[in-house]
């Protein structure tokens, strides 16, 4: 019984192997036949050096760059159109356009990120106006500190100037250290004046920045443009700086 069972299993294995071989053979034959049919049903249509249209099963290498069509020779149906190769000038222009498109896409993404940041920071335009007010107040405080320091330096300079004048009127030589102190204070006064000037310039930049921010928020949130949003903050802060020539 065991021998008969073993022989039956071997027979089945052989049968299965035979069927797998036959199926593989049929599949490969069908595939190769399809490839041959596809090759037979395509041709190249191009113009030769005399401008004559040629249809052939192959295309000479010298005509490839001039462009051609792949067609079904039985029906004349165009399967694919291969355009002519670009000239150096055309390649240069295509590269320029591609770079231009890439730059535009980068700008769009940059704008998208900027808009997203605005909408994250502010729920409506007046939120940005209030943020502007805080920035301006902070800058004004810095200006006030510089001005206080400037007044102190100017007072010290006036004191040293009087001391030097008293010595000169008394016919005495002015102490070189006193002269150096005057020079140092003069330089400090010039530095502080420049810092105050830079803070006023910073206020102008902040204003332009927030005007742009508010305008963009109005666009994004469909608010009507309101040019008066900053009016209540427009009382000018008097620029105070003491001249170093006093």
3D architecture notes:
- This protein has 246 residues and is an alpha+beta fold.
- It folds into three domains: 1-40; 42-85, no CATH class; 122-233.
- The protein is 68% helix and 7% strand.
- The protein contains five helices and four strands.
- Strand 3 and strand 4 (78-82) form a beta hairpin.
- The longest helix has 45 residues, at 125-169.
- It is elongated, with a radius of gyration of 44 Å.
- It starts with a helix and ends in a 26-residue tail after the last helix.
Short précis:
This protein has 246 residues and is α+β, with helices and mostly antiparallel strands. The chain has helices at 2-40, 61-64, 88-121, 125-169, 176-220, and strands at 43-47, 53-56, 68-71, 78-82.
Q: Which helices and strands, and how do they pair?
A:
Elements: H1 2-40, E1 43-47, E2 53-56, H2 61-64, E3 68-71, E4 78-82, H3 88-121, H4 125-169, H5 176-220
Antiparallel strand pairs: 1-2, 1-3, 3-4
What's the average pLDDT? Answer: 83
* Topology order in helix (H) and strand (E) letters: HEEHEEHHH
Count of β-strands: 4
Task: Tell me the structural class.
Answer: alpha+beta
Strand residue percentage:
5-15%
Return residue spans where pLDDT drops below 50 for at least 5 consecutive residues. 1-8, 29-39, 237-246
- In DSSP terms (H or I, runs of 4 or more residues), the helix count works out at 5
Q: CA-to-CA gap between the ends?
A: 128 Å
* Helix content estimate: 55-70%
**C-alpha-based Rg, rounded:** 44 Å
The tally of structural domains comes to: 3
Largest beta-sheet details: 4 strands, antiparallel
Largest beta sheet: strand ordering: 2-1-3-4
How would you describe the shape?
A: elongated
